[in-house]
Amino acid sequence: MSTPLESCCGNRAEQVTSQIRPRDRGPAPCLVCGASGTAVEHRTLLHMLRPDRVGRLGDREFRFCDAPGCDTVYFSVDGEVSFGTADLRERVGLKTTGDPQAPVCYCFGFTVGDLEADVRLGRTPTAVGRIREMVKARQCVCEVRNPSGRCCLGEIARIARPSNSEKG
Questions:
Q1: Which of the four, 61, 119, 152, 161, has the lowest number of CB atoms within 10 Å?
Q2: Across 29-55, average pLDDT
Q3: 13/18 Cα distance (integer angstroms)
């Protein structure tokens, strides 16, 4: 039985991708909106981009733009290439506002609506506990499945926080 690449919490994925990590992991401004873009690995791009777009990657370093009002999702640090929402295989939840079906956890399928429902009921979002369990069991692959290339728990906390403060 073959084993899949381990998650962001494992070291096998680290070994496999160590040579395609961005050389400079510092932020860079989005070419369209100027928001600070964060480094993203090529393997995330390979998974997220439509197959006909992958050929434009080259050996460039890319950043992820999480600004909701900007259609740009990925842009190269050299300014030569950018990819928008139409270039991706999946919806980018961070680029969507007001849609309860917007994805927030790409590994286990939780949506903004799932989180908001839990918060309305005054309980810790079910997603948090479930995701932590799965991370501990090394079942997540955030660095590949999440368009940002990062764990979704930070985004989940950001979504849940405003609702909690509105409750007073």
A1: 161
A2: 94
A3: 8
